[in-house]
């Protein structure tokens, strides 16, 4: 059925309208299709062009995909090459930082293996771990053996317990003892673990304290200085405050006595006033005749006046000074009187600086004026001079000036050469003198290592004696030749004095030795004839 359908669908086409072959080819091969048209040819070419475009897009996408894959493979290969290069560099050259990072939790191994190569590190680790592995295998075998024996013993004990329970339900004393001992063992294990933890924490604390011990000496020095300062401050305050406290106590006593006297006088006055008022009410005419001018009943304005002679003089002075103070306030722009003097000092300093600046500017301006006048004078002369009038005298003056300038330049060159030559010699002399000073740096100086003396026993702590680690202070490099020569001269004189003293001591010792030798020889000479006579 399918073959029949396919045969029915096939139709012959004319040669003029065939899309795949030309007309001549179709004519020669007798291929005709009356149903084929020019539009069909156009649509066929458009479809073919669309197919080609799609094929080009697919090829481009495939190329992009291939390029992406190639780039990924290239990056992975680069990464591999880099990693392999790093591994080869570590293997054949070594990497100290990498080794330190590998053993960062184990500082002992870090110090041992940081300078070695990878295969050397492996060999060292294998050498160290081989013995440990063998001992571990032996211990594991021993443990397994003991476990087997323990299981066997447990089975035997269980059998015995069953037998004992079958015959006698009572618990043996040995069982109670074993339970008690097991409990004690557990408690001791917990105690051991706690002690180990405490020991590890104490070790860490000791390490930290040893690390911090470097900073104890400056801290103690600072505490010592603070202690001395505080003691001096306390002594000073005691020295200043004790007499003031005594004066205050005296004044308090005096004030109490004065208050007591004033209260008594006040009470007496009140009593007299009350009696006088009572008398005044009873006999007013008699009292007015008896009242004196200085009594309590008379009143005068000058009696309660507080102004004394000194107060009035001060007021007069203040009236004279107040306008000047107001002027100073307005000049210094200060509201408070206390700020006038510091502001005045600051403004006076600023005014002095401004005056100096003005003087400099005036001097610069005067010099510029002089130069401008000189330039004007020369310019007028140049404008007045003409080539006809330019005579031989001016030419001679110019030659003389040029000769003077050349002579000055020659002198400057000679000075520069002389300084260049002398500077090398001066530097050599200075270095030689500094070397001599460095050699004689301990001459005429006391011992640099002095034990510290603490003011109190609280600062004299144990395990903090760093006197042996105190280095001597470095010498200050001197550049002045005169000072260097004087210091070298003084130190050489001291050295020669010490040498002369030691020489005199040696000469005196030599003379004593010679005298002793002469005495011994004389005694030997006297002894020999005696021995001969005896023989």
UniProtKB/TrEMBL annotation:
Gene Ontology cellular component list: ciliary basal body; ciliary rootlet; ciliary tip
Extract the coiled-coil ranges from the record.
Answer: 136-163, 245-283
Query: What is this protein identified as?
Result: CLUMA_CG012160, isoform A
Superkingdom, taxonomy of origin: Eukaryota
Q: Which GO terms describe its biological process?
A: cilium movement; outer dynein arm assembly
Q: Which UniProt keywords apply?
A: Coiled coil
Q: Which InterPro entries match?
A: ODAD3
Q: Which residues form the signal peptide?
A: none
């Amino acid at each position: 059925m399918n073959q029949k359908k396919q045969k029915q669908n096939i139709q012959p086409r004319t040669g003029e309208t065939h899309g795949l072959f030309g007309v001549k080819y179709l004519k020669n091969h007798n291929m005709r299709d009356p149903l084929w048209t020019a539009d069909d040819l156009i649509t066929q070419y458009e479809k073919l062009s669309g197919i080609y475009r799609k094929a080009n897009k697919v090829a481009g996408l495939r190329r992009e995909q291939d390029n992406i894959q190639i780039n990924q493979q290239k990056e992975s290969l680069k990464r591999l090459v880099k990693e392999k290069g790093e591994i080869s560099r570590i293997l054949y050259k070594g990497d100290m930082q990498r080794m330190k990072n590998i053993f960062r939790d184990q500082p002992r191994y870090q110090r041992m293996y940081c300078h070695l190569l990878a295969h050397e590190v492996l060999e060292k680790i294998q050498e160290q771990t081989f013995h440990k592995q063998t001992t571990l295998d032996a211990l594991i075998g021993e443990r397994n053996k003991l476990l087997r024996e323990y299981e066997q013993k447990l089975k035997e004990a269980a059998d015995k317990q069953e037998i004992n329970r079958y015959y006698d339900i009572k618990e043996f004393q040995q069982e109670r003892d074993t339970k008690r001992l097991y409990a004690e063992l557990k408690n001791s294990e917990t105690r051991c673990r706690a002690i180990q933890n405490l020991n590890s924490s104490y070790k860490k604390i000791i390490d930290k304290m040893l690390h911090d011990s470097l900073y104890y000496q400056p801290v103690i020095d600072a505490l010592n200085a603070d202690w001395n300062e505080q003691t001096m401050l306390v002594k000073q305050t005691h020295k200043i405050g004790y007499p003031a406290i005594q004066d205050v106590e005296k004044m308090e006593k005096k004030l109490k006595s004065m208050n007591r006297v004033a209260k008594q006088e006040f009470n007496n006055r009140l009593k007299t006033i009350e009696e006088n008022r009572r008398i005044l009410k009873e006999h007013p005419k008699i009292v007015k005749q008896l009242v004196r001018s200085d009594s309590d009943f008379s009143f005068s304005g000058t009696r309660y006046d507080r102004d004394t002679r000194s107060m009035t003089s001060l007021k007069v002075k203040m009236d004279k000074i107040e306008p000047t103070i107001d002027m100073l306030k307005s000049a210094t722009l200060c509201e408070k009187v206390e700020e006038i003097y510091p502001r005045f000092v600051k403004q006076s300093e600023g005014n002095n600086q401004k005056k100096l600046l003005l003087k400099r500017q005036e001097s610069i301006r005067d010099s510029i004026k002089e130069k401008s006048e000189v330039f004007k004078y020369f310019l007028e002369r140049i404008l007045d001079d003409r080539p006809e009038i330019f005579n031989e005298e001016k030419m001679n003056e110019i030659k003389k000036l040029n000769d003077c300038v050349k002579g000055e330049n020659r002198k400057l060159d000679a000075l520069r050469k002389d300084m260049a030559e002398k500077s090398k010699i001066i530097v050599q002399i200075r270095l030689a003198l500094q070397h001599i000073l460095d050699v004689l740096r301990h001459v005429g100086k006391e011992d640099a290592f002095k034990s510290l003396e603490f003011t109190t026993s609280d600062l004299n702590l144990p395990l903090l004696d760093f006197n042996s680690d105190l280095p001597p202070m470095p010498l200050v490099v001197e550049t002045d030749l005169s000072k260097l020569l004087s210091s070298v001269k003084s130190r050489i004189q001291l050295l020669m004095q010490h040498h002369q003293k030691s020489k005199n001591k040696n000469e005196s010792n030599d003379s004593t030795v010679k005298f002793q030798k002469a005495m011994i020889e004389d005694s030997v000479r006297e002894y020999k004839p005696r021995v001969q006579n005896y023989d």
